[in-house]
Amino acid sequence: MKAVRFHSYGDSEVLVHEEVEVPRAGAGQVVLRVAGAAVNPVDATLRAGYVREVFDLALPHVPCYDVAGVVTEVGEGVSGWSEGDAVVAWLPMTGPGAAAEYALAPAEALAAAPRSVELADAAALPSVALTAWQALFEHAGLSAGQSVLINGAGGAVGGYAVQLAAQAGASVTATAGPGSAERVASYGAGRVIDYTATPLLEAVAGERFDVVLNLVFLAPQELARLVDLVVDGGVFADTVPPGLTQGAGRGVRHAQVFGRGDAGRLADLVARVDAGELRVHVAQRRPLAELRGVHEELGAFKLAGKTVVTP
Ligand SMILES: NC(=O)c1ccc[n+]([C@@H]2O[C@H](COP(=O)([O-])OP(=O)(O)OC[C@H]3O[C@@H](n4cnc5c(N)ncnc54)[C@H](OP(=O)(O)O)[C@@H]3O)[C@@H](O)[C@H]2O)c1
Question: Which of 265, 221, 216, 222 shows the shortest CA–CA distance to 237?
């Protein structure tokens, strides 16, 4: 089969589209025929080796940990899944990914794929929607009637966060660029601030929020100013490392979010997609063979929106 792999850490040039063996399912695993594999910002960080102390990858490594596909082989001890099942998964980030025609997945990571979106596009759901849910509800404890500011709502995590927060009865203020503002408003944000036209701090001068969720890389001073927008005793949740390096003060709780796979919650998010409550946004599909080019664009900050690669 064809796969994209890197044999050493480095820039996008290390990605090679090559012939490799089709994986076989071990105990507790399934093999998937990949319909789509989603690209995430951290893929470039993993490939460059910047976080190898935490994510020690076995090289050569197949990138892309978000997958949608069809089960083609079921390993020993796997129950509940059969050949032909359409599924989605957040694959373990240190294991082989889904930038390939076939991918290995632990059965415990699988959820049935949504039926209302094309299977390839369903790869745009697992890690980002789970991170949005975990940030808002597990870390920030967001509840109905609270106010939340979502900084970076134009991105994949932000899009799901706006939808989930609005549906939970929170009042949502979001920042988004001109290309995403309309979509973010349609997700239920009561107010969308075009951060390219008006600086956020100016737009919300004098206001504070029960929860601020940050999804944008910011300098330490900018982060501190964002924390100032949280009410006393509120929550500042941040998905972008390294995050705050000192206490937030005023009783504000700082939650540095590290999303994790959760097949049960993923099944719930899939159900919301099929109920028409959660929209999956894919900016573009690209052939698997173009993954190197996609990473070049990612590194040059030219990749707008969620990209799904298809074998
Ligand atoms: N810790 C974790 O577990 C975890 C999990 C997932 C993601 N993350 C991190 O969370 C961040 C967001 O992830 P993502 O997947 O949503 O990324 P993404 O889809 O690439 O979205 C990035 C978006 O950020 C927006 N943006 C850029 N600069 C901005 C600014 N100054 N103010 C407001 N918005 C701005 C842009 O939106 P517009 O198009 O509207 O301009 C851009 O589309 C990334 O750093 C990612 O690595 C962490």
Answer: 216
Cβ neighbourhood burial of 21 (10 Å; 0-12, 13-18, 19+): exposed
pLDDT digits (tens, 9 = 90+) for 238-283: 999 988 988 888 999 999 999 999 999 999 999 999 999 999 999 9
Q: Does the beta carbon of 304 sit less than 6 angstroms from any atom of ligand 1?
A: yes
CA of 130 to the centre of ligand 1 (A): 15
Q: For residue range 101-118, list pLDDT tens digits in order.
A: 999 999 999 999 999 999
Domains of the chain: 2-125+280-310 (3.90.180.10), 128-256 (3.40.50.720)
| Cβ(240) – ligand 1 distance below 6 Å | yes
pTM, 2 dp: 0.98
Q: How far apart are CA 217 and CA 239, in angstroms?
A: 9
- The CB of 173 under 6 Å from ligand 1? The reply is no
The partner residues of 175 in beta bridges, in order of sequence, read: 151, 193
Answer whether 114 contacts ligand 1 (Cβ < 6 A).
no
Q: Which atom of ligand 1 is nearest to the CA of 260?
A: 3
Q: Residues 108-157: pLDDT tens digits?
A: 999 999 999 999 999 999 999 999 999 999 999 999 999 999 999 999 99
Can you tell me the distance from the alpha carbon of 105 to that of 100, in angstroms, rounded to the nearest whole number?
13
Residue with CA closest to ligand 1 atom 34? 152
Letter for the amino acid at 100?
A: A
